């Protein structure tokens, strides 16, 4: 339940309350006119945009498909491989379709430089451009290349290329103000893309053919040179072949075998000759000679024996010399033949090297020659890696602006702006519209809600209070009186002080209305004008005479009963304020003021004191120290939360919390827009309950 006192720091009502859908709907209901106005303005702006500003644009779409499996006219290896169709190549082909080089060719093919849609320099200048041209010097005229580049850039912005998911198909979408032009551009891009693939392959083949031709010529010369070296070597050298070299090696082997035998024979002859030379006796000589003829000579024929032996020795010496001569001849032949074999072996190695070089040159030449023939055969039969799947169809309806979408967005924007304006207005306005808001923000009980009194003058307001006791406003005052009296059943308040944060918030009217109501119930009521500065009580009671007032009573110049004036029509006793040389705060803080209240309590049932606004002067806080109850008037939809918080804080600084709040000058018709339920309208629709009974 709200308290009469609280902390000095009170949260905002927008911070303490959660977002309630009912509150939100109520807020929007109050601002339906704002939403309606913003909605109408947004729809009007959308209609104006569609009718006068928006330029219809059309989108034409052509599709091409990559051919990952191509039919080959000839089974040759191509100079440029076909596309594999993986993700990287698909993304690369998308970029090729959007490339500046390809689109620059489209600009040239369709002469888009002469089209104002893409060459904006040909379009008439707008009013803004004309105005800016007056303020700045004219820029230098662009070159033809700059114009072409700008046109290509405009075409790039009008083009969208995408690879359809899970396929090798590319969609080429072109946006233009002319539907036929959009289709023509899309088809041209597709055709030039296909042609570009063929041209790329043709150029690659031409380049390869040119290079291969040059390379084959070079290899042919190298082959001829290598074969010439082989021929020259064969001419300069004797006939060399592996067979001839093998025959020489056989001959060398035979000589070496003969040389071995001759050396063995020589050794045998040397041994034989040495044996003959060492023999001394005839028996030794016969044994050494082993000659049959020598053996047949009689022992006694010494001359014949010696002659034969001498002949044998001479023959042995001759045979030894002949063997040594043959060995020398064979050794000479061996050296000569060995040198010949060595020379021919070296020549054979060189010949083989030259032959291998010539053969390698021949193989390389034949390979490049065959590749040249294959490459030359591919000229004229190049195939693109893609084909057109579908030509662009001239669109029959514009793609933008989409009228339904524009109208829908405009309506949504109008509603959102309206809601935002309402929310901004609500957030900016921290005034109070319902008792629930006031209690939540102040943590203080709201004891009453007094409707706005439709009176043009203050006397008319008093007359209304007296003549219409059954009016909703007076019923609200009775409710205020009841709430105030029941706030402390054991000791109902007798000295009641009314104040507010600022002037004009209904504190004086509240004081008068409460006093009139109490007097009508038979109570003796003293209405005291505690505001010594403005002194407005006499405006409500024109019949009051001037003279002594509250200041005179407090200063002791007159007694209370001498200063009090009675109003027979309302039954009130009135003590008006009067100008005083003394400071009001000093007067109310004096013992005389306390004595005055004690005397008033003895003579009256209730004392109602109307005090100055608390944010203007400190009088109210001082007078409140001696009051039984403090009613704080909060003007409906006017007093702000900051003003209320500061005023309540000032009362808390003097340890005199406010007893209750009164929501004044309530416009009941408008309050229905802010009330969250019927309970907040209890002083409105049901305020007159029972008045006519």
Number of DSSP-assigned strands: 12
Could you list the spans in which at least 5 consecutive residues all have pLDDT below 50? 4-17, 682-693
Mean pLDDT: 82
Task: Give the name of the CATH architecture of the domain at 447-670.
Answer: 3-Layer(aba) Sandwich
Largest sheet: 8 strands, mixed
Structural shape: elongated
Strand composition percent: 5-15%
Kindly report the name of the CATH homologous superfamily of the domain at 447-670. P-loop containing nucleotide triphosphate hydrolases
- Fraction in helix: 55-70%
Strand order in the sheet with the most strands:
5-12-11-6-10-7-9-8
Number of helices: 25
CATH domain fold name of the domain at 447-670: Rossmann fold
Instruction: Report the top-level CATH class of the domain at 447-670.
Output: Alpha Beta
Give the CA-CA distance, first to last residue.
34 Å
Class by helix and strand content? alpha/beta
Radius of gyration: 66 Å
Domain Tyrosine-protein kinase G-rich: 353-426
Subcellular location: Cell inner membrane
GO molecular function: ATP binding; non-membrane spanning protein tyrosine kinase activity
Membrane topology: Multi-pass membrane protein
